[in-house]
Amino acid sequence: MGAFQVIYVCSPLSGNIQENMKKAKEYAGQVKEVFGCRAIAPHGHLPKFMDDANEKEREVCIRFCVGCLECCDGIAVFEKPATDGMKKEIQRAYEMKLPFILCCESLHSIHDCVIVASVDQDYEKVVKELLQCDVLMKERSL
Question: Residues in domain DUF7768 (predicted)?
């Protein structure tokens, strides 16, 4: 394996749920192929077991997804702007100081993304742009 062992795939679920589940799985496959590591996208599977329209079930699933970040050493963010669920994942990844892998709609090679580590000068700026905010929260939001 390369520099990463497990990368969390952060992409939208809300909206067209079936299509976004499919995309999440595709993104995980692309991350695995490009980085030669495991890639997890729990939101690509969770809607089979929960109702995204049910606020309580949705919140449980978001907490589960955020918890999955504890097993990861990087986060790949696909698509902008970030949804509310993505923002919670991004916030937690920031708190953990995980490297961010910024991707467009597809990832075919290492040249299709930008990697920003917590030691990089632009780390906080990148996270603020992803969260669309001026100030980053320093403590856990969930």
Answer: 6-100
What distance in Å separates the CA atoms of residue 119 and residue 127, rounded to the nearest whole number?
Answer: 13
Bond prior to 99 in cis (omega within 30° of 0): no
Which CATH number applies to 6-131: 3.10.180, 3.30.1890, 3.10.450, 3.40.50?
A: 3.40.50
Token pair recorded at residue 34: 């490009």
Helix axes 84-95, 123-131, angle to 10 degrees: 160
For residue 92, pLDDT over 50 is answered with: yes
| Digit-coded pLDDT (tens) for 1-28 | 468 999 999 999 888 999 999 999 999 9
Give the angle subtended at the CA of 72 by the CAs of 131 and 103, to the nearest 5°: 50
